[in-house]
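Recap from last week: sequence in, structure out.
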Amino acid sequence: MTTAAPAKPASALGRMSPLLSPSVAFVIVWAIVLAVWFSVTDTTFTRITGSSRHESFTSLTFFGLAIAAFVLGALAAPVLFAVSGPARVPALGIRGHDLDLIRRAGNIAAGVGAVITFGTLLLGMGRAGGPGAIVSALFGGGPSRVSDALQSARIQGLTVWVHLSFACAPIGTLGALIARERGLPTWPYKRILVVGLVVALLNGLLFDERLAVFEYVVAASVTAAGVYALRGARLLNGRRLVWAIALLALLVTVWQVGEYRRTYLPRYGTNVENVSTNHPSASRLGFDQLAAYLLASPDNGMYAVDGYRAQTYAFWSLHGFMTTFLLDSKETPVIGHGIAEVDETLRAIYYPNGPFTTFSLPGYAFLDLSWAGLGLLFWFGVMCGVVHRRFVAGEIWAVLVYPFVFVGVIDSYRTMYWSESRVLVPAVLIALTCRALAGRRATMGAGACLGVKAVS
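Predicted structure tokens:
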């Protein structure tokens, strides 16, 4: 009598949701964006975005090839690089001193983000006229003056380090889940998570980091989803579904409050003269602004394909580096002319004012390298595919970095996210932390080998 062979456990790739794959997520995002872009009438498009819809065979061809290039790169990553082996430092295997190192890195990220945010807020508050002016900026009064005062309090090259706080999302989430599994206190990691969220909220509501809270919540959610998948646990249950609904409500509330201050009050507030009585509600305007982001950024990119006749070379693909080291002016050698042409392009689209100034991931690739930007998108896809495979394997650096990669995939309709300082700055901290973890593992391994030799 033969016995049935035991079923093989599902692979890590099989346990991971396909929605977390960069190629699948990228296709879904752009399918939604293009479906909305084609389905909206010209009248609605102009009303929402303030510009006319631009489309041509050339621009649509470039965007189609751009999407295909990214997806092909993501799928080709396992073929081009050996990325399918087991994790050298598995995220689920950290404990003791390793977990303490993760906690210290999270404390640094939370502390730096909080100090810079509250320092900038205090400086801007003094220039704006005190705490009452800040409250007035959020819920009524003269938001433009206060916003200018807050923005003037930011110091280029210094306040950029506030983006360290984005590392709190994956670090705090991973630490809390591992600590709970080990039976250790989770509050140090939850504190990191909450401080980072507060920093993101303040930057989103007061400093015009419009989507900071969205990015933070998505990064934390992807980290949690990855950890649960690596454990083989069910991703959604009643408790987690409640949390998901609560986070969605938070995102909607933050967006509506932010758009009320940024858009509704300047157009229809009590201090505005000659306002027509027939205007949308604040909630409707907030929804329109969200739709405008979906429509305007790809449209700007399509306009650039046909109308932009310069190149910024590596400016957008190295944007975080360029802005941190003050290389983002029109006088910068080599790329300055291209930066000036970008302003001219936006002026041509939105004359006299440009409310939407992003070009989408394919658009920025074109601004940098023209049609050669398709190659850049291919290698962006490869990069995302490589990190995703190591994320699936449970490699700790990938578990901490892939959430930012995934946010960039979701945000590709709007910007070239991975080159921004909000990714590069926390990635530096995560890289240093993981290097320290790997070095400690190597030292312990060498010590164990020496101990065995001494006994023998």
